[in-house]
Design goal:
single chain, 246 residues, alpha+beta, BirA Bifunctional Protein, domain 2, SH3 type barrels, 2 domains, five-stranded antiparallel beta sheet, 5 helices, 15 strands, 35% strand, globular
Length: 246
């Protein structure tokens, strides 16, 4: 393991890991400072949302877990961490391409294709967040994808050239760090998050446990839940994985 500092973060770099989130959780038992990053350029079993895997070719992409230990941030405010990470990643992607947006709750898309996957795991102590493990996978220089993921895309595929992966990491952490410094500015975070949302305008087909329906985006509530208005004018509120786009 190599330890060094980059863009205001403590970096713990490993030659190879099954999962940066798993390693970060293990290291937390011995104590990790706020703004620590577990990094590898060879992740063999990356974790996606709800048990899904994350495909990442060795040496081609960014695979990290950012560890936050926010001071006295209430557990009910945990969606602020999601907004910080999603917006920080989007800020980074926008340095290179336009048309990027946040697909609720926190994936980053360019057009209709997914470039960034995010998995956040919190530990709670009483009424406050103790730690947040923010796993981030960004497709940087990968040329082809072989998994059954429906719509991946990399910066290489859009730009036609490879980026310096370490310089890209430096820029990413700068973007995330700037957002994290503003984590208590809820009005600002929510404004930017709502502006960045995927399919925030118009009627779309959605699907929940009861089946498909047509609805438009209405907002995000204080807990980060998605608020929709269906074709009958009824308001519907959903937590993560309770509804999906069709």
């Amino acid at each position: 393991m190599k330890k060094y500092y980059l863009s205001g973060f403590q970096i713990l770099e490993f030659e190879e890991l099954d999962s940066t989130n798993t390693k970060a959780a293990e290291l937390l038992k011995g104590g990790l400072e706020d703004r620590s990053v577990v990094l590898t350029f060879r992740q063999t079993k990356g974790k996606g949302q709800v048990g899904n895997s994350w495909e990442s070719e060795a040496g081609k992409n960014i695979s990290i877990t950012v560890v936050f230990r926010p001071e006295r941030l209430q557990a009910v405010q945990q969606f602020a961490v999601s907004m910080v990470i999603a917006l920080g990643c989007r800020d980074f992607i926008r340095k290179y391409v336009q048309g990027c947006c946040v697909k609720w709750p926190n994936d980053v898309y360019v057009g209709e294709q997914k470039m960034v996957g995010i998995l956040i795991e919190h530990t709670i102590a009483g009424a406050f967040i103790r730690t947040s493990l923010c796993g981030i996978g960004i497709n940087i220089n990968q040329r082809q994808f072989y998994s059954d993921a429906p719509n991946p895309v990399s910066l290489f595929q859009l730009l036609g050239k490879e980026l310096d992966i370490r310089e890209a990491l430096k820029e990413l952490l700068e973007c995330i760090g700037k957002r994290y410094e503003r984590i208590r500015e809820d009005t600002e975070l929510r404004r930017d998050y709502l502006e960045a949302l995927y399919r925030k305008c118009g009627d779309y087909v959605w699907e929940d446990a009861s089946g498909k329906f047509v609805a438009s985006f209405k907002g995000i509530d204080e807990y980060g839940r998605l608020v929709l208005k269906d074709s009958e004018g009824k308001e519907r509120v959903y937590g993560f994985k309770e509804v999906k786009f069709c």
